[in-house]
Design brief:
Four copies of one chain form a homotetramer. By secondary structure, chain A is α/β, with parallel strands linked by helices. Helix content of chain A is 52%, strand content 11%. The first copy, chain A, folds into two domains: 155 residues, Rossmann fold, CATH 3.40.50.720; 123 residues, N-(1-d-carboxylethyl)-l-norvaline Dehydrogenase, domain 2 (Orthogonal Bundle).
Chain lengths: 293, 293, 293, 293
């Protein structure tokens, strides 16, 4: 795989569980990669930069892969940061899960600076990132999205374009809501079954073997049936954060979301009762506990 | 496909949307089929009987495929009914979705009569029944379940055995709960997306293309995205009935089920606001209505 | 206070925490009282009867004060029971909290037997019964209710007549729903306050001193603020039973009741987690537990 | 009533439905009152000021009575605003319903400026403000609260002091949550009763006559029973705002609040379905609508 002629140099800001394997894959695909990470660290074959300004200087595109709105804002706005350092005609590719409002602000700010912003959040855990198996949901100017084809090809197995940056951010939030919702409803079903004498694995096997066999049901169902919520692939506190973003989007657009509200309470309860170290699927443990299991 | 030597004559009680194609397939598989239906009707190649007693006389197994507990009870108990008419050593195969309590009562009553009861509820709509594509969830005495292998092979594409009749009834209720729950969470996600500018079909395509692509999400998601809830494949009132059975099972075993309770309210609201003629997936319309869509 | 000329002899069936003080007060008001209790026991000044038939023979009215539908049915229907033993032109006064459906059945059965049925459930705990401070909610034929004026005067501090027996039963269920609902919302408010640094007693004092000072808020608020849920004045299992009756009434009339559903889950959780010995206000402890208090 | 020697001159910022009658009462109690209002207007006997700076210059205390956090922030922070214009040793008395977080920020900012901040939110609608019947919930430095005794006496019928400004803001939010929660549970009970044949006024009369007779139940119950939600005494959008503040406080302190979440959905639905012109008690109409009433 070769980088497109127009897009050769890519900055990667954020080398966490997700950003690091993505940077590795970009190097492998032949891009000139320049990395920056708040707490340091390097990727073989990439230039490790001490500052954001250094990383983005001369880059055709800068990818951000950070944990939340505040981190993306801190990296983007201000002296010596991404927005100030990126050249005209280049792209900021925001791959974090962020609020719809921030996606809108970023699109506007980069437009004002003569740059492009493409929100491109991803589905997939760290192992999917390493295996180039991410699903990418890009949203932005159509030409900008097209220009990123080689980058996306180096990172994932497919893209699902949305009308714009705000819509891409929202689509990702819808997906995260549905993951958490699947955890809740599977936990209820498996608890009901178990209290009625059906081993969880048997019930889950029937469910995935008949009508319910999606990747999310298989992966999270297995965790719930086994009661195995460590190590955390996605932290409990991030679950609360994402439900907040979902509900904020709903409040903004006047969309009542009762299951999202139930999930918000689940995550709050989990954090209030000592489960902050578990994977977010650990809210299933609350369902069991309330059933006396 | 040939019927097993031990199980040649099968009575089918109930020729509704599901029972009729099942009887047809049993005839096609070489069974001697005797049918009875409350409101009459016949199946080519099967003996149409005027009474339950006539239908079950001499049968090796009697299948019931009826709409609810009350119908199954009316067909089973009393003079001239199934329990009185079936011979010793034969089987009642209850394929309706019934309460856990009734499954337990039937198992006991048939045992006391020297007969066997196998609960064998199915997943699949009428077209799946016609195409021998049902999924069957049998529960009962292991030898009885084994004896029915040829019957199940004539009706469906696979079986997922449960420990007993009560557990099979419960597993089916868990599945129906999860179907309705998927309708709710998809409806919330698609409404949130639509109010934020994402066409429902685009969002659904992304969801099924990434992590959420199960049969239930594809089929019901398409109905929700299109807002198409007629003709009803599964009636709204049956949705309320099933949620009641789920919650009764949960009350019996002390299992709180908040999403099942939300769904119960959805079905009540649907029936109170003129949606009794819609498919049960029509509760998605309530999510939209409350969002002002 | 003197009994009306037409109504002199009163049978009291059920001498539990409520029935006993009520029988005592009827004796004190000059009625000829005949008692029966499943597990025996006597009231000074009243005739203790060994059978229901003996108790109701010659009575102008028979009061039932029992724990639930099943007990009222067992006492009323069958050979040698209330319905068979009461004379024509006499009254059954059902003072238990029962289902709307049973109230309707009783009204019909007694009408068919040439008797009258008045549902007259009460608000008030045992100490209110002893102090003649009950509130009575009678429903039945207007003349029958009028004929009971002297009985009600001997038992309580006031009556709130409803259109009929079913409506009286329903009004009582509405009241019990509101008691439990007040426990829930007060528990949420006090937990939120306490986690934010407001002592529960201080917040409760403000609430009752301003807009929220009803008897139910004062009594249950004090229990919640003190975390004192023993001894149980009203048992946890009865809370679940009443929420079931409320939700059944709602299902019958197609009325979604989301807070009643939440309460049902609360009572289920309480019973599944070892709180069956607490007063029903003990569901407040779940609110606290989920907040990490 | 005479103003205390130490506290003679009071600025009133905000002359809306609440601020205006409060200013009138302060004039009547003998205070030197200086008013400012964003959209102009004057109160007889008070000095109408064109700017905030002019209003607070020389004041011993400045009262703010504004609709929401953003308004209070806009009036307080910045050049020529309250914080800059108030003298050292004077007081800002924040009587609006604001977030716990803002109460904390205000306390800090005024402390840093050598001033005092007392949060003193009130219970009572405009007519209560006019009649000096407000209930006041002050929180701040004890000496500051004491110094305001004459001001509070001129405005209301009693005070319920809280430990600090944040706690006072939170106590008020708890109260507003409980008002909305009472609307919800009364609406559910009255709808259930009405569908079962009990006229709402009859059921409400029974409820308030027995255990549930608080000011909030009487006032809001009457509105619900009559279905009368105009003119709005408290706007629907403010209901959503307050539930958001309640839930934010709960998220901050890790307190799950399921009824508050239900209410948030109710207010969202109301605003999404054309009820923005109704009193916030108009969420009762949603309960009725979903029951088919």
């Amino acid at each position: 795989m070769t980088a497109s002629p127009r897009l050769r140099t890519v900055a990667v800001l954020g080398l966490g569980q997700m950003g690091r394997p993505m940077a590795v894959n970009l190097v492998g695909a032949g891009f000139a990669v320049r990395t920056w990470n708040r707490s340091g660290g390097a990727v073989e074959g990439a230039a490790a930069c001490a500052t954001i300004a250094e990383a983005v200087a001369g880059a055709d595109a800068a990818l951000t892969m950070l944990s939340e709105d505040a981190a993306v804002e801190a990296v983007t706005f201000g002296d010596g940061r991404l927005l100030a350092g990126l050249g005209r005609g280049t792209l900021h590719v925001g791959m974090s899960t962020i609020s719809v409002a921030l996606a809108g602000r970023l699109a506007e700010a980069h437009r004002d600076a003569g740059q492009g912003f493409v929100a491109a959040p991803v589905f997939g855990r760290p192992e999917a990132a390493a295996a180039r198996q991410l699903w990418i949901v890009p949203g932005g100017d159509a030409a900008d999205v097209a220009a990123l084809a080689s980058v996306f090809a180096a990172l994932g197995q497919g893209t699902f374009p949305m009308p714009g940056a705000r819509e891409a951010a929202l689509a990702k939030l819808c997906g995260n809501f549905l993951i958490a919702a699947n955890v809740e409803i599977l936990a209820e079903a498996l608890a009901l079954g178990e209290k009625g004498g059906i081993p969880p694995a048997a019930l889950l096997g029937m469910l995935t073997g008949t009508l319910f066999g999606s990747p999310v049901v298989k992966r999270y169902g297995a965790m719930i049936a086994a009661g195995q919520f460590t190590p955390p692939g996605f932290a409990m506190a991030l679950g609360l954060k994402d439900m907040r973003l979902v509900l904020e989007a709903g409040e903004q657009s006047r969309t009542p979301l009762p299951v999202a509200e139930l999930l918000r309470s689940r995550f709050l309860t989990a954090l209030a009762t000592g489960r902050e170290g578990l994977d977010w699927a650990g809210i299933a443990g609350l369902v069991r506990e309330q059933a006396g299991l």
